Amino acid sequence: MISPCEYIWIGCPYCIEMKPYLSELMTKHESLALILRHSTKNEIWERDARLFYALDQLNQLVYLDELMEFYVELRRAKTPPEQEDFNRFFSERGLDHAEIMRIADGADVNALIDVTKAEMTAIDLKSVPTLVVNGKYMVLYDNDLETNEQRMALAEYLMALE
Fold first, then answer.
1. DSSP state, 42?
2. Using an 8 Å Cβ cutoff, are 133 and 7 in contact?
3. CB–CB of 35/61 below 8 Å?
4. What sign does the dihedral 76-91-7-46 (CA atoms) show?
5. Domains of the chain (ranges plus CATH)?
6. In terms of C-beta distances under 8 Å and separation of at least 24 residues, what long-range contacts does 108-115 make, across chains too?
7. What span, in angstroms and rounded, lies between the C-alpha atoms of 73 and 85?
8. Alpha carbons 6 and 133: distance in angstroms, whole number
């Protein structure tokens, strides 16, 4: 069985809602690890993907949930996050925003961005959160399923197909 891959955006409240359900799903499948990818759907999401991948390169994804909550709160206040917001967020956690941005603009993150774009094109991914199961099936947040429980039941079913 191939590990499932979730595509997210750090500013997506639905991605936050899915997290506990995905954690429960992965607890049932301890031999698998959830692969996280950050969508590069547009210019802003690519900027955010660079932050995500830089944090991953620094082994600092421990702050991902807090960053997502922070970002969503700014969006709800009708304040799009700017670099000074990210600087404040990272500084409050003892992280060097300039170092994060250096890595975000580096060759390793550029390669990850290219891979993510190619994957998204190959599977025609248009929205987040999207869970890709067994490398070919997509469980979409915006499909006909109404609850996260139904989405996870579909993911379980698709995982069992392989």
1. S
2. no
3. no
4. positive
5. 11-160 (3.40.30.10)
6. 108/53, 108/57, 109/50, 109/53, 109/54, 109/57, 112/49, 112/53, 113/40, 113/46, 113/49, 113/50, 113/53
7. 12
8. 9
- Copy the structure tokens of residue 160: 């069992």
pLDDT tens, residue by residue, 82-118: 999 999 999 999 999 999 999 999 999 999 999 999 9
Which residues does 101 contact at the CB level (< 8 Å), separation at least 6?
54, 83
Structural tokens at position 26: 């992965």
Closest CA to 96 of 126, 58, 140, 68: 58
Asked whether the predicted pLDDT for residue 162 surpasses 90, the reply is: no
Structure tokens of 132?
Answer: 């890709």
Q: Which pLDDT value is given to residue 22?
A: 95
DSSP string, 133-159: ETTTEEEETTSS--SHHHHHHHHHHHH
| pTM score, whole prediction | 0.93
Q: What is the mean pLDDT of the chain?
A: 94
